[in-house]
Amino acid sequence: MRVIPVVAALAGTSSASTMFIQMTAAQLNYQWAVTGWSADCAETGCHYDFNITGTANETVIPARPGFKAHCSGEGEGAPYQECTQLESDSEHLRVVASLLPSSNNTVNGTRQAHLQVSMKHTDPEVSTTFYNYTGHGYGTYGPSSAALQDFLVQVDDFYGVG
Ligand SMILES: *[C@@H]1O[C@H](CO)[C@@H](O)[C@H](O)[C@H]1NC(C)=O
Ligand SMILES: *[C@@H]1O[C@H](CO)[C@@H](O)[C@H](O)[C@H]1NC(C)=O
Ligand SMILES: *[C@@H]1O[C@H](CO)[C@@H](O)[C@H](O)[C@H]1NC(C)=O
Ligand SMILES: *[C@@H]1O[C@H](CO)[C@@H](O)[C@H](O)[C@H]1NC(C)=O
Ligand SMILES: *[C@@H]1O[C@H](CO)[C@@H](O)[C@H](O)[C@H]1NC(C)=O
Questions:
Q1: What is the pLDDT along the chain (162 residues), one digit of tens a residue?
Q2: Nearest to residue 71, comparing CAs of 131, 137, 156?
Q3: Å from CA of 95 to ligand 5 middle
Q4: Using an 8 Å Cβ cutoff, are 118 and 96 in contact?
Q5: 99 CA from centroid of ligand 5 (Å)
Q6: Atom 1 in ligand 2: which residue has the minimum CA distance?
């Protein structure tokens, strides 16, 4: 029950036992680092591969877990695909990724890829309490000879249920 008063305080209510809170990107001030990004499109569709890390932050409320995951999948507009935890507590943490339909913007002649990533963190002490963060970032598509890219994913949506 440790987390619930905290969530209640954020939500501005203290009566309910189940709460739903939302915050904007500016309020969150939270980024994840994409490293080793590669993506390419062929007739069969677009494919992506990257690592993503989040730095632990114990001073914000709710606390943010550190994580590193490897994500690989395909299809613009496809549903979220599960990422593999590399060094995190996979029992309480889940990371998923998807490519959003591209706006067809080009950067230096290369088409931009719109990445969406979501991380869900379950409170280790209260299994019914969880936090769900979603962020967006931009990489570019291929060619397959292109150098691997690093960029940030800006977390822009968050809710918690406790
Ligand atoms: C992801 O990180 C692992 C080690 O944590 C490394 O072996 C792998 O090469 C990295 N992959 C990419 C795409 O950077
Ligand atoms: C934790 O988040 C707060 C608020 O965004 C920030 O001021 C602080 O620098 C962060 N700490 C770490 C270790 O990232
Ligand atoms: C991007 O270009 C492709 C191929 O021309 C087209 O099918 C798709 O609708 C375009 N997407 C947008 C968002 O304009
Ligand atoms: C576009 O190309 C310029 C010149 O080579 C480079 O400085 C810039 O970083 C490139 N932009 C991106 C997003 O790769
Ligand atoms: C976060 O919530 C969204 C919306 O309900 C959901 O689509 C997504 O799968 C959740 N993220 C994780 C990592 O479970």
A1: 233 334 444 544 443 345 567 778 888 999 999 999 999 998 888 999 999 999 999 999 889 999 999 999 999 999 999 999 998 677 899 999 999 998 778 877 788 999 999 999 998 888 889 999 999 999 999 887 888 999 999 999 998 888
A2: 137
A3: 9
A4: yes
A5: 15
A6: 57
What predicted TM-score, i.e. pTM, was given to this entire model?
Answer: 0.85
In the numeric block, the tokens 């507009």 are attached to 77
Q: Which two tokens stand for residue 25?
A: 């990107």
Cα–Cα distance measured from residue 127 to residue 155, given in angstroms and rounded to the nearest whole number: 23
Structure tokens at 145: 């000879």
| Ligand minimally distant from the alpha carbon of residue 114 | 3
What is the distance in A from the centroid of ligand 1 to the CA of 51? 6
Task: From the CA of 86, give the closest atom in ligand 1.
Answer: 5
